[in-house]
Design goal:
This protein is of the alpha/beta class and about 350 residues long. It has helices at about 10-25, 35-45, 45-50, 65, 70-80, 100-105, 120-125, 145-155, 170-180, 195-200, 205-210, 220-235, 255-265, 295-300, 315-320, 350-360; strands at about 30-35, 55-60, 85-90, 110-115, 130-140, 160-170, 190, 215-220, 245, 265-275, 280-285. It has a six-stranded mixed sheet, sandwiched between helices. A five-stranded parallel sheet has the order 2-1-7-8-9.
């Protein structure tokens, strides 16, 4: 398959590994932002091929993992309502809320449906005019354009029985929060290629300059990841910092302008709580007032819910690169994919789920 097979080529991997080993002369902590990249590192065993001086830290780029607990509880509240069809991506149905998950609500008779795109949810609303259909709109900038577009389509079709429960977040704000923290361990970043395919990489240039740190836009295949690591380490060894684009087949500096304009038309930035991390300034995307009638929180008058994170789960520290999944005393015992304490163990992009599958 073009643009995939060649980036899984073992011969090419064997060529770049000696270059990484040759350039690395001191310890470096490199954080991959995206949970998909975390799983790729583990699935292909790339972490074991790198020099022992390089430590991979796993960032907060798993949208399911950082969806705030109060939004999960609001989703549970909506899904349990008699006249509601609650639509969600599959990853979300087993994420634990304060007391249960969406799958438990479904087992009790709630109409919870797994969809593969926001358009699926809108189609359900069109075919069930007697029901209120709520779509759980989560994700980073990658999903935001599609989620914004479905709101515009619902407005154009005057589909009044469709609303969205939003939990959209943006990556640069989280990266800055990590860099500004006194517990920060990150020497360099691998930025998420799919986010940058929408947003470009111009947003990262001020971050690299402010914190004097290399940021390399990277894809998801073995060769992508190794090229990203090599470029990042090379900058660190040469005491340089800046933004490099190692995912040029999908990413440009400016990004997808029409997608960005669609996002800006529907959403605006607000301070937003991240699960396990806390409030991050200007990190959340919520519906503008013009689209308030499609906001599930306003339609159903959902008020802020007081929640308390699990004291046993260290997912927040893992997402900030302070700890690793194997540092958790509950890993693989009290916390498993069947009985997760937190979202990082149940999400398909969660670091704990990756360690459970590939590194036990």
């Amino acid at each position: 398959m073009k643009f995939v097979d060649e980036f899984r080529d073992a011969a090419a991997v064997k060529k770049i590994l000696p270059r990484i080993h040759g350039v690395t002369t001191q310890p470096w902590n490199i954080m991959e932002i995206c949970g998909g990249q975390t799983h790729a590192f583990l699935r292909y065993g790339i972490d074991k091929l790198l020099p022992e001086e390089i430590t991979l830290l796993h960032g907060p780029g798993c949208p399911v993992c950082v969806t705030p607990l109060q939004q999960i509880d609001k989703a549970l509240q909506l899904a349990a309502m008699e006249n509601v069809i609650f639509c969600s991506f599959g990853d979300m149905v087993r994420v634990p809320g304060s007391r249960e998950d969406l799958l438990s609500v479904k087992a009790r008779g709630g109409d919870v449906r797994i969809v593969y795109s926001p358009i699926d949810a809108l189609k359900i609303a069109m075919t069930h005019p007697d029901k209120d259909v709520v779509f759980f709109a989560i994700g980073f900038e990658t999903t935001a354009p599609a989620n914004a577009m479905v709101i515009l389509q619902a407005e154009a079709k005057k589909q009044r029985n469709f609303t969205a429960l939003c939990s959209q977040v943006v990556a640069p704000a989280a990266m800055e929060t990590i860099l500004a923290s006194p517990t920060n361990k990150v020497d360099g970043f691998l930025a998420a290629g799919h986010v940058c395919s929408v947003m470009g990489y111009h947003e990262y240039i001020p971050l690299a300059e402010k914190y004097k740190i290399p940021i390399v836009v990277t894809g998801f295949e073995p060769l992508d990841l190794l090229c990203g690591v090599f470029a990042c380490v090379k900058q660190l060894q040469e005491q340089r910092y800046g933004v490099e684009n190692q995912y040029r087949r999908s990413v440009t500096r400016a990004g997808n302008i029409p997608a960005q304009e669609t996002m800006k038309k529907v959403f605006h930035l607000v301070d937003w709580p991240w699960r396990g991390i806390g409030m991050i300034p200007r990190s959340g995307l919520v519906l503008r007032d013009e689209y308030a009638e499609y906001d599930a929180e306003k339609r159903f008058q959902l008020h802020d819910i007081e929640v308390q994170e699990s004291k046993e789960c260290i997912a927040g520290l893992i997402l900030q690169g302070v700890k690793k999944p194997l540092d958790c005393s509950h890993f693989g015992t009290a916390c498993t994919p069947d009985h997760p304490l937190g979202a990082t163990m149940v999400s398909s992009e969660g670091a704990c789920a990756g360690y459970f599958e590939y590194k036990r």
